[in-house]
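Format notes (please read before filing issues)

Several people have asked whether sequences and structure tokens are stored in separate files. They are not. Every record keeps both together, in the order shown below: the sequence lines, then the token lines. Line labels are part of the format and must not be stripped during preprocessing.
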Amino acid sequence: FPEWAKKEVQASVDVWSANFKSSVVVTVDASWGRSSSWGVLGSARPGSFFSAFSGAPDPSLWYASALANALAGKDLDKANPEIVIQVNSAAPWNTRGDGSPTGSEYDLQSVFLHEIGHGLGFLSNADYDDLYGYGSIQQPTPFDAYAQLPDGRRLMDLDSPSLELGEAMTQPLVWSGANGIRANNGIKPLLYSPSPYERGSSISHLDEDTFAKSERDAVMSPNLKRGEVFHLPGPLLIAMFEDLMAKPPA
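Then the structure lines:
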């Protein structure tokens, strides 16, 4: 990373350090290079997933490394980082580091804050077959357990693989966690599940139309506009992480 970018990255790490509860160090492996897709600003994934560990609220679910470590109270995989992030060096970044990108620039701290959120566990493991329309969830995460269909069924409880699950992944989905609902004024937060399915964006974000203009809770909407800035996770995201660290309702 160039020097200006290191400061932006560290600032986002510091914000999450103050807002993610864990007694275990979270190691972030970040790389700076050209992306194969010009429209991708960054991407993130957990180092691994763990289930049925000591301290797991639900042994049937697969928890991202950092989330699993926080719940277990120890590092379950000392050989690997908890989060892996890639940033597109070719994007038109605001290199001044003043937190005020122009209308033609992107804010790196905002992107990194968003990607760390995914790496910490704000993500679904659902997969979609673009050719046949099948949906599958081989290792359901707690995020999948809180994603709910309009009729109240959990996304992860549908047959996998199945056309039914594929159809559900392109229907309106909401968050069923009590903390997230409370932080959203008593309304189940709407997730991003457009039709047709958008690989890399669908389900693992808050709904774009609902939250993109929110001053507090836009950080996990799927699209960052040029000139847009957010330097805090927001109360809704923090509340949803509280749900992720609790046992989801059956």
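For reference, the curators noted about this record: The radius of gyration is 17 Å. Strands lie at 28-33, 42-46, 49-50, 63-64, 83-88, 127-128, 135-136, 147-148, 174-175.
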